[in-house]
């Protein structure tokens, strides 16, 4: 959509080896299928806004989240993609700039054939680099290599501590978000007829995001 790439290389780096060792020791055994029917893509939820919280088990992750501001963190997951696997192209409501959220991706293990496909352009994310993605853009993941790809994924709210994870709000960004709203409105109308059960789930998520932002303004 326009010149807005929906991905940002922040320039920040982390100690990926140490974070991976912590994940592998404490959480790797808890990986489960991250999407129905896709056993090659697995994940483990560490934190979310509806009750999951394993952060205290992971001291190195705790330090990273403290630098971001724990009150700014919406969700934390580790994801593993098996060799020669692919995640289909899609858009998300979570990790979405429209709701003031950005999705941080930090590769802890990867290979040269592992890419994120954002707005139909491929990006290889090197180990330890911190990237930010706006999931309102079309995105997919491909691991074409022989090794697992492990990413630490953190959704954060816009705040002074997380400003480096958000794009400048240019005309291209506003045009993209307007187009995204139009696409979602069309899908909502379609699913009201074809998949009415999905409407309640989407409405609940949007309401939760709206209430969260309202609480921020009152605070």
From TrEMBL:
Pfam families: Asp_Arg_Hydrox (PF05118). Transmembrane segments: none annotated. Signal peptide: none annotated. Residues 15-158 form the Aspartyl/asparaginy/proline hydroxylase domain. SUPFAM superfamilies: Clavaminate synthase-like. It comes from the Bacteria. This is Aspartyl/asparaginyl beta-hydroxylase domain-containing protein. It comes from Sphingomonas agrestis. The lineage of its organism: Bacteria, Pseudomonadati, Pseudomonadota, Alphaproteobacteria, Sphingomonadales.
